[in-house]
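User: structure tokens for this one?
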Amino acid sequence: MKAIAALPLVALAAGCTTLSGGAGSTGRTAVTPPRWTDSVMASMTLREKAAQIVWPSVFGDYVSGDSPQWRRLTQYVQQEKVGGFTISVGSPTEVAAKLNALQSMSKIPLLFGADLEAGAGFRARGGYFVPNAIDLGGASLFPPEMAIGATRDTTLAYEEGRLTAVEGRALGIHIAYAPVLDVNNNPDNPVINTRSYGEDPQLAARMGVAFIHGLQDHGMIATGKHFPGHGDTGVNSHLALPVVTVSRSRLDTVELVPFRAAVNAGVGAIMSFHGAMPALDSSNVPGTLSPKVLTGLLRGEMGFRGIIISDAMDMRGVLDTYGAEEAVKRAIAAGIDVLIQPLDVSKTIDAVLAGISEGRYTEARLDSSVRKVLETKRRLGLAENKLVDINALRFLVGDSANAQIARTVAEKSITLVKDSLRQIPLLVDTARVLSITVARRADLSAGNAFNAELRSHLSKLRSEFVATEDAALNFPRLIAAADSADITIVSSYVGQSWDATTASSPEAFTNFVHTLVDRGRKPIVVAFGNPYLLQQLPWVGAYVVAWGGFPVSQVAAARAMLGASTISGHLPISIPPYVTRGSGEERAVQRR
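Assistant:
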């Protein structure tokens, strides 16, 4: 791997872990002494302090300097004086250039966080150029966390954390909103699913801690989320308030296990859960707004001293009952240090101040959060050097060595859940193979890499794309096509839900696959989306879980099915009532 210059070994705000290996510096950088934080705080007005803990979102797209979008960002930095931003999607070079520009406008260094759950490429990719669906490349993209769980390999989890830090810091990002430490023990969970390491709390703890160490050993702050646990929910907190009605003893033995391990490992930040847990707070307020959850449990019982970051403050889980401004006041009173993705930046800052004037909390309470933010900036070396070297990007981000590690993760994660007819691997290169991709029309990458890899050995491959929006309209035609094929592969890129139209209902899809079985077509089903799909199709003879639809997982799934790589993944979840956790048939390499 290419070496990068190291940041000094410095303690995080949590006080019990170190950071090193930031990108873009030359040699070891002297970190500003602690008095910098005191000096900055002394120079700030009360409103400027409040702004330090309000972080709006910014796309990593190109916008002109006179556009409304850029004028708004300029206002956030120069007039509102926010303390940081949450970075959304964009190409690596544009992300880095944009963050440098924002840093240059700010007197006090900015902190940038991003959802890097699957590596820096989870946010920093160029996307696809339409109508040709040309992949514009980007940072390294790993499979979802549940794929790491399927490998059971903590070394790979560490490596993902390391590369996420190396590439993310090269882009100018300082905090990864990762890992997801939720224990996904509810197959109907509409929002976590493969974002979790699995349903085993001990496995989630081991993998999460390894990722945290890999990330924080190399210059980036990790954020365990969503405390105290978003795994056992059937409600999406973006849309409504989930309620987890389990006992405190169950929480202690399941949901809280990975978070305790992360705190003991020195995780630098924790993100809150916009959901209620009556066993922790009988008032049924979301964890984000609960002093009992954040101050009592996380700070008090668990001893966490790092930064507590809210989940996005524009989500219905906190807005529906309380409204935006009341939610802000309750969040600060509960113990939140940073508010991300507010509905309105200026009104959010005003709400933080109003909470002080109303006696909801003290200025000293605000100061404690501001100090954590400023100390983090100081310890990351941002007071000395807040810009990144854009010319160095292409030698640090998405290089071939990094891509190889992502491929290794993907290949080791492929899980053959069942193969009752021993159809895998596909070794007859002259077989007539029909590969059906079922995905949303907007999913431009679905099936592309998978079919290209299959076609490298299967010369008679025929591929068909079916949009979920009108899938049922195509099923009769596909049944006829399957009748003339030797092998039929049905790949689903659908997550937890289909579009709410009759033509694209899951029942229509289930009936289609069942018809293939009844006609003796012996379909091989590959789950690139929801791994629990087997619950709808328990009678299929062959079921493969690839965990995600990213190109790296598509190639890995195709190579596994061709016998070009080993199949060694084991389920980190159960698929009730059909398959237990740990299931997975293994296959040796049969093609060189």
